[in-house]
Design a protein that fits this description.
Layout (H helix, E strand, L loop, with lengths): L25 E9 L4 H13 L4 E6 L2 E4 L9 E10 L3 H14 L14 E7 L4 E2 L4 E2 L8 H10 L6 H6 L5 E5 L9
Bound molecules: adenosine monophosphate.
The site of adenosine monophosphate has 9 residues, from strand 5 and strand 7.
Length: 185
């Protein structure tokens, strides 16, 4: 019997299209501070501004703290930490936060000058980075009670007990519960 030509099995058309890339969310912790003007309003505005950033959700916010400025003069600070989930890469996130600072009227006349709004990336996932514009974890994270106390509320596993012991002498007061609402200015 003559050999039959081999039947071609139907093949799925090959596609050159790769599956759509889904941007990964990273958990990050942002330090918020203000010591000029309507401080609590500035922090609330920053939370709303972060929630409106592309690919970004504000997951949780710490209590509000009041602290005396470190290495600087001026009125007391109000501080808090926000936990966010974002698809923005670290540098894009930094630039977006700096735009929020600018929109809040932030000026930088000199180092540690009083400020209407200060936003720092404390932690971006587990990322460690040291560039001219961005250092992660934030380089002064371990030195500041106004960062460590609110951060410890949200991510205690990221705050070493010896860091907390190291800032025990710093003057700081829990000023508003989660949800806030005590400060009039
Ligand atoms: P500040 O005056 O405290 O707002 O400091 C802002 C400067 O710190 C900017 O020039 C940033 O490029 C730099 N910087 C380095 N690492 C960080 C970080 N993790 N979060 C925010 N700013 C950072």
């Amino acid at each position: 019997m003559p050999a039959q030509p081999r039947r071609r099995t139907a093949q799925r058309p090959k596609t050159t299209e790769s599956p759509r890339a889904v941007a990964q969310e990273t958990r990050a912790w942002i330090g918020l501070g203000a010591n000029l003007g309507a401080r609590e309003a500035a922090l609330r505005g920053a939370l709303a501004g972060m929630a409106a950033l592309p690919g970004t959700r504000v997951l949780r916010v710490s209590s509000l703290y009041r602290s005396a400025p470190l290495d600087a003069g001026g009125p007391d600070y109000l501080n808090a930490v926000a936990e966010i989930a974002t698809t923005l890469p670290p540098l894009a996130l930094l630039h977006a936060l700096q735009a929020l600072e600018q929109a809040a009227g932030r000026e930088r006349p000199y180092r540690n000058a009083p400020r209407t709004l200060d936003l720092d990336i404390l932690l971006y996932g587990e990322l460690q980075l040291a560039t001219d514009t961005l250092t992660l974890p934030h380089p002064r994270l371990h030195e500041r009670a106004f960062v460590l106390l609110p951060l410890a509320e949200l991510a205690p596993e990221r705050v070493a007990p010896e860091w907390l012991a190291g800032v025990a002498g710093q003057v700081i007061e829990r000023w508003g519960a989660v949800g806030w609402g005590k400060d009039a200015s």
